[in-house]
Specification:
This protein is mainly beta. The protein is built from six helices and 23 strands. The structure holds 2-acetamido-2-deoxy-beta-D-glucopyranose (5 copies).
């Protein structure tokens, strides 16, 4: 979780002209690449959609307004309403889940897959819940280092988690964070029968006053807001802002991750494991039901079109429920000008401005599918991915210091590792968020899979 400040650093873009700008609370994005992605990198287009942190972006309106909560049951019988992050522009009326990685429909379930050379798969809901109830019925993956997660994550990084380590199939780890601030004392285990063999229904009931984690209808944990007061900062350290539902499978046990993360995840992932099927690890999601909060005041309301923030404090009283549109005209637009086609890049010095600004976290420049309007060089994405192995030397040093990244990949997603070296190795960064967001296209060049081009790149091609 130490994400914003520390973890992303790495991700240097190898061998390309793109200088990927990183962002955090102290370093906001520049005007020409105003949106700070969930993984702490600046760009336009998809960088401004789900996960864009208004506090670290150029201005509060850089991020695209967040589609408001919708009560609905999602069963995973087809890919029809699951859209790749390279295609999604913010229209939640057409897309239920935004996909990063590789999900496949199997037997009326969706399998989140994790193959060698990838950092797994993430499905994020297109809509945001501002309190409410969400249930997910699924079977986890298994194996050392393999982590399955079902979380709520807001754009200012409030977070409510269920996480499952593949080496401890009798345990669901519950957790929460306020604005992404690391606190390793909030984790609590819930015991249950084998999570790989059995479907369980995991529920999060979230109100302004409490969070209740229940498994199969039985309450496993309750956290009261009143127990979270911080007298120093004078605020409740309690999740309180609209959040997306995220389902994910990711490798906590990568050699490039911090030791604390690897230990927490139960050791290194075995990429030749008999536990894999069809060449990948997988988690099996049967259904998700979102029930929006029945607000009696403006707090938690879901009657408008979208949520925005009017103050960088990012607390519940800074959330504005209104009617601002959520759909970008192109992947070169931003929340400030959702109809922009990006032609005017006053400040860009390059003669090919469209190629200098990142538009999809995890892809280098305007990759295939990234930017239908700009005509940038579409081959850049895949080629730079593979060529990034050229900087592998830099990546081989890091493992001890988590701050640097681990793999000089071009990914915007820092997946597993993130745990900063500074945090002692005893703590793992357990937020599903930092690790997960990752993106398939990531090249795990460090020790294990030098030169393997990430999956997204391939999928996109
Ligand atoms: C909101 O009200 C509806 C209708 O009474 C109910 O079915 C639903 O469970 C409620 N949602 C929450 C989150 O309490
Ligand atoms: C929860 O369970 C995991 C896996 O068994 C264990 O490593 C961890 O220490 C437990 N956490 C707590 C707070 O008991
Ligand atoms: C309370 O807030 C202060 C100031 O923001 C922070 O340094 C401290 O870590 C917080 N306490 C806890 C328990 O998180
Ligand atoms: C959210 O705001 C309301 C009033 O607008 C306040 O009473 C409540 O304590 C706040 N909740 C949190 C978690 O900050
Ligand atoms: C938004 O972008 C469009 C198309 O690029 C441009 O014509 C328009 O002037 C921009 N609006 C603002 C307010 O910048």
């Amino acid at each position: 979780m130490v994400r914003t400040s520390i973890f992303v650093t790495a991700l240097a873009i190898a061998s390309t002209a793109f200088a990927q700008q990183t962002c955090d609370l102290n370093t906001k994005c520049p005007e020409e690449a105003p949106c700070c992605s969930q993984y702490g990198q600046c760009g336009v287009g998809a960088y401004c959609l789900g996960g864009c942190d208004p506090r670290s972006s150029f201005s509060l309106d850089s991020c695209t307004p967040e589609p408001v909560c919708q009560s609905k049951t999602y069963d995973f019988t087809s890919m029809d309403r699951i859209t790749s992050k390279t295609k999604y522009l913010g229209d939640a009326s057409k897309t239920d889940w935004v996909m990063d990685g590789d999900a496949v429909i199997y037997d009326n379930n969706v399998l989140l897959t994790m193959a060698p050379g990838t950092v797994g798969t993430l499905l994020a809901s297109s809509t945001y819940m501002w309190y409410g109830n969400v249930k997910a019925t699924f079977k986890t993956s298994r194996g050392a280092g393999v982590v399955t997660a079902f979380i709520l994550l807001s754009d200012v990084k409030d977070e409510i988690d269920y996480e499952f380590v593949g080496a401890a199939l009798d345990t669901a780890q519950s957790n929460y964070y306020f604005q992404g601030i690391p606190d390793y004392n909030n984790e609590l285990n819930i015991s249950l029968s084998d999570t790989f063999e059995n479907y369980h229904t995991y529920e999060i009931d979230w109100t302004p006053d409490s969070i209740t984690w229940s498994v199969d209808g039985q309450v496993g944990r309750v956290k009261q807001r009143t127990d979270t007061w911080n007298a120093t900062s004078n605020q409740w350290m309690f999740p309180q802002t609209p959040a997306r539902v995220q389902l994910s499978l990711w490798p906590g046990g990568l050699a490039s991750n911090g030791q604390g993360t690897i230990d927490w995840a139960g050791g290194l992932v075995d990429w030749n494991s008999p536990l894999m099927t069809n060449g990948y690890y997988y988690a099996t999601f049967e259904s998700v039901t979102i029930s929006c909060y029945n607000a009696t005041s403006s707090l938690g309301t879901n009657t408008g079109v979208s949520y925005t923030y009017d103050n960088a404090a990012g607390t519940n009283n800074t959330v504005v429920a209104g009617d601002k549109p959520t759909v970008l005209k192109s992947l070169l637009a931003t929340g400030t000008n959702i109809s922009s086609k990006g032609s005017s890049s006053k400040s860009a010095s390059s003669t090919k401005p469209s190629a200098t600004v990142q538009s999809i976290p995890g892809l280098t420049g305007a990759g295939p599918g990234a930017d239908p309007h700009a005509g940038g060089d579409s081959s850049s994405s895949s080629s730079s991915s593979s060529s990034s192995s050229s900087d592998s030397s830099s990546s081989s040093t890091q493992s001890a210091s988590g701050s640097s990244s681990t793999d000089g990949s071009t990914s915007g997603f820092s997946q597993g590792g993130s745990n900063s070296g500074s945090s002692s190795s005893s703590s793992h960064s357990s937020s599903g968020a930092d690790k997960l967001g990752a993106t398939q296209e990531k090249v795990l060049q460090g020790s294990l899979f030098a030169g393997i081009v990430a999956m997204v790149a391939m999928v996109v091609l």
